[in-house]
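Just wondering, can you check both lines?
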Amino acid sequence: MAVGRRRDVSQNRDLDLDQTLGLVRMVRTGVDSMTKVVLGISLLVVAVGCMSPPSEGPATVAAAEPTPAPAQAGTPNSGAQVDFVASGPIIVEDQVDVSAQREGIISAVFAEPGTFVKRGQLLAKMDDRQITADLEAARAKTRSTEADLKNWQAEAKVLEADYARAQKLWEAQIIPKEQLDHAKYKAESDQWDVKRVSELLANSKESERSLELELEKTQITAPFNGVVARRYIRVGQSVTKNDRLFWVTATAPLRIRVTLPERFLGRVKPGTMVGITPAEARDALHRYRARVIQVSPVVDPSSDTIEILAELSGDTSGLRPGMRADLHLPDVR
């Protein structure tokens, strides 16, 4: 019985030892796993720190530092002379729409936008066949009337000669008084016929001249030296009187019209030189020169401003009519 009890105790101790070793092995395995997890998390934190951008502390401080603002027009800056800047369009004196002076059908177009033209140069032409035929008929009538007039004038001279001869015969008492009066009235009647045909000839010539003017209206020409800016017509198009056909503009002299505050009245005069810069060019390299040619004699009461007109001089190749530009002149206070 004692032997059997010791054997049970030994077996129980063996079981307890095996369980203890198993627990130790499990704890050691868990510790190793936790260590690996902690080590992985540490490596991940280090990698993220390396990938993050550098600190923006200095840059933020630099951006927060105030930067000097550029000097504005009309604002004093350290005692230096400041220009007053006024903006306005660049214009030319000659800029018109060429309109139709009569109705008709466009038969030919000779100018396109961008074409430089001379005064009187043909831009387009209307169908002029009917007017040409009417003009030829009027000229033929004029020639016929001129021939009739010459015939009447020759006959009048014959009758005047007959009347003069009749006077001599009556004075010699060869013919009666009635024959003398007949010759007189016939000569006077012929003079009235000469005047009538002369008026017909004048009327015929006026009709001829009127048709010539109508024929000229079928020729659309440039009113001055310049450039064709727009074309509103095409061949075959029917137009009526006052319809727009072309827009022609001169290219020089270029001018700029601006308004100034009332304080410039009496200080800006004709002949004053000013600087001009295109609105899109902000540097001084694009400055042009202009001379004031006109100053408004009155002040606009609604805006307390005056209007001036300046004409550009020198090389203006970089400017075009219609552009906006800035006019610079010394400010006054």
The CA atoms of residues 57 and 63 lie 10 Å apart. The helical segments are 2-51, 57-64, 129-171, 177-217. Residues 1-15, 43-78 have pLDDT under 50 and may be disordered.
